[in-house]
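This part of the workshop introduces the protein records we will be handling. A record pairs a protein's sequence with a compact description of its fold. Backbone structure tokens are a discrete shorthand for how the chain folds in space. The question running through the whole workshop is how a given chain folds. The record below serves as our worked example for the rest of this section.
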Amino acid sequence: MVSVLYSSLRTRKFWQRCITLHSFLYHVHRAPARFHSTYRDITNYDKRELPILDLELLQGSDENVTELVGNAEQSLKEVGFFVIKNHGISDHTIKQTFGISRRFFDLEASEKSKVKMTSDYPYGYEQAEILSQSLNGVGATPDPKETYNIKVSEPIWPDQPAEFKETVTEYCNAMWVLTTKILRIFALVLRQNETFFDDKFPTDNMTVFRQLNYPHVAPGPDRIRASQHTDYGVLTILAQDNVGGLQVKLPGKEWEDVSTPHGCLLVNIGDMMQRWSNDSWRSTLHRVVTKESSSQADNRRQSMAFFVNPGKDVMIECIPDYKDEAEPKEGAEEVKYPPIRAEDYILAKHYSTIPSILADAGEK
């Protein structure tokens, strides 16, 4: 257990240091027209240049915060992905964590297998996942990648590299501070008190830090490296290298390439936020491919995903204010999804993607 990841994060003083938005609530509830007037029209955005939200605005005037929250809402409804800048994570921290991740994946298979994923602990190292299986069981071939997954509240650490635990703990600490800021923005977009998510993330929540390695593959037309899927949880914060290959797909649209500008991070919401918002927010389909036109001699790709998930017993159900957001039937409030326990939803999705691991355990 690395209680350091959370011990300093649960006090009221910490929340106030992270982001002070009490005064902004006045503007949300007393001046809704002004709140909505700050939206930037991104309905017809170029998906290769995702909306960029500047978190530095959180430290500015009420008008700055209003603008940020308004743009966040439009992004969440139309795209489900956005870029953040001035996020507070240093380049050194990110580069250092990428480096330790690369060293781990460069180890012999026998060493990595010492911390392999099992049915009892569905985290750790694996190279058998089929992400598209989470979409109605589509797909039969493992994605050509490998991952190391750490449940932040219940980590299992590899013996090598020696600095792995220290480096990853520092990264997760920084990511959790950033997460609290984003969750407060989300709460305000949902027209809730800024502390709406606080009790949904106990210290033993299911947040997972995933490191991904995509070995070099021969270039080909849209050769799959991570099959199409949506994320299962609340939100994902992604750091990726400059190799490229991430794509998103909106309904009725073609797959579009997504890159992250230097110094920025990528954020997308998962299925739980779509369910909480009654389909008002979009959990967007995405995948990773290699392009035929790639001229890279070595297209090995790395990324790091911080999957923000709530406590296992949290019920995911439509927020009352959003019952009529998704074009309900005339004269009635339509709730799109029945309530579901967070752990039940996430593990059902996750287990569907690792059939060979369950088969090895005799559970298929």
About this structure: Residues 1-48, 328-332 have pLDDT under 50 and may be disordered. Residues 164-189 form the longest helix (26 residues). The first strand starts at residue 52 and ends at 54.
